[in-house]
Amino acid sequence: RSFPILNIFDDFILSYRVGKRKPHPAIFQAALERAGATPGECLYIDDIDEFVSAAKKMGINGVVFNSVSDLEKQLEKHGVV
After folding, report:
1. What digits encode the pLDDT tens for the residues 19-55?
2. What DSSP string runs through the chain?
3. Most buried of 23, 62, 71, 73, CB within 10 angstroms?
4. Are 66 and 60 in contact (CB under 8 A)?
């Protein structure tokens, strides 16, 4: 109820279930497996550069969130919108 935006997501990867937290590769691997996707098919967005860098090391496309307008440009660049 506190975060209604969470209703738009189909699934969640929870660190306590994986037993690791970002930026550990296991958390990203769990997300890839749950999505049934390859790293190159995914786009990871975070406001913490270290986490984005960790995703990129696994071959996941990554964007550091700085602003809404920048994110819109990045989503377009990556073919999401």
Report:
1. 999 999 999 999 999 999 999 999 999 999 999 999 9
2. ---GGGGG-S----HHHHT--TTSHHHHHHHHHHHT--GGG-EEEES-HHHHHHHHHTT-EEEE---HHHHHHHHHHTT--
3. 62
4. no
